[in-house]
Design brief:
- The chain is of the alpha+beta class.
- A hairpin with a 5-residue loop joins strand 9 and strand 10.
- The protein has one domain: Extracellular Endonuclease, Chain A, CATH 3.40.570.
- Helix content is about 25%, strand content about 20%.
- It contains eight helices and ten strands.
- The N terminus is likely disordered.
- Strands 1-2-3-6-9-10 form a six-stranded antiparallel beta sheet, with helices on both faces. A two-stranded antiparallel sheet has the order 4-5.
Length: about 325
């Protein structure tokens, strides 16, 4: 006869079976969790340091390949600016008070001047999107009698459509006499491109010579009209060499060499310091130079001035 199990025995056996199942289930799950391959983690996204943390406004921009994003301040920041912005084709230090840059700095190489990847066709001057309320506006130049004179010239930025477009921000222009802009200033810009070609690589710092207090202005925003402009150029060599120019904001028939000055004189008149990464002794020697020797000068007969037609007084 079959042997009966008591309810107590039955309960004990059932409990043991349930316990075994639970132990096996959780133990297996724990083992599987511990030994299963971990999913690959995406690489951490670098957090950019905003330029505002460095005392300058941050401008969101698409990444640029290393070969098309030169370091325009590789030899030092000239200083004395309310806003510093680095862009594809140039860097600038801006004066809110004068509503124009104190300085524009950029690298120019043989490869850049040889490349033709951009056109100025269809481009119009516009406020700087980074600080639109601080720079000049179109209304300031309307019927002013002055050109919107590029400081980083559009013709120097043919190597990049983006660099070309950014050259038309009002933060990259100063009021220039039309005959000056279309004459001796353009001739100097052409000479810089010739230097870039013959030297292989140069760094240019250029801008207006601004008074401490406004004297002559244009437009409702009282944009200062500079009395003169400067340009300082460093050839990285070897050997390294430097030239500096100061040109009054009027046209001239004088040769470019007539406007050569020591770079130290430009520093004195602007309060800026150029190419501060140079060794001090070398910097002092280069900044004292006024000799045109050692540079290949473009024949002035090759110079084709811009149209002599004055800007429209819209």
């Amino acid at each position: 006869m079959a042997r009966r199990f008591s309810s107590r025995s039955s309960s004990s056996i059932g409990g043991a079976i349930i316990g075994l199942l639970l132990l096996t289930g959780f133990g297996g799950a724990g083992f599987w969790h511990a030994t299963r391959p971990k999913p690959s983690q995406p690489p951490a996204t670098p957090v950019p340091i905003e330029a505002s943390a460095l005392g300058m406004p941050f401008q969101a921009a698409a990444p640029q390949p290393a070969q098309t994003a030169p370091s325009h301040l590789a030899w030092g920041t000239p200083g004395r600016a309310d806003i510093v912005v680095s862009r594809t084709g140039y860097a600038l230090g801006f004066s809110r008070y004068h509503r124009q840059p104190r300085w524009v700095s950029y690298q120019l190489t043989r490869a850049m001047v040889q490349k033709r990847a951009a056109s100025r066709k269809g481009l119009e001057f516009q406020p700087d999107p980074t600080f639109p309320n601080d720079c000049a506006q179109q209304v300031d130049y309307t019927r002013s009698g002055y050109d919107r004179g590029h400081l980083a010239p559009a013709a120097d930025l043919n190597w990049s459509p983006r660099a070309m477009a950014e050259s038309f921000y009002f933060s990259n222009v100063s009021p220039q006499d039309h005959a000056f802009n279309a004459g001796i200033w353009q001739q100097l810009e052409d000479q810089m491109r010739h230097f870039a070609y013959t030297e292989g690589e140069i760094y240019i710092v250029t801008g207006p010579i601004l008074p401490e207090k406004k004297q002559k202005t244009i437009g409702p925003n009282q944009v200062t009209v500079p009395a003169a402009f400067y340009k300082v150029v460093l050839s990285t060599g070897p050997p390294r060499k430097m030239l500096a120019f100061i040109l009054p904001n009027v046209n001239s028939k004088q040769p470019l060499q007539h406007f050569l000055v020591p770079a130290a004189e430009v520093e004195r008149r602007t309060g800026l310091r150029f190419f501060t990464s140079l060794p001090p002794d070398e910097a002092a020697r280069l900044k004292a130079n006024t000799s045109p020797d050692g540079w290949q000068w473009k024949n002035t007969q090759q110079f084709t001035p811009r149209s002599k037609k004055k800007p429209r007084r819209r």
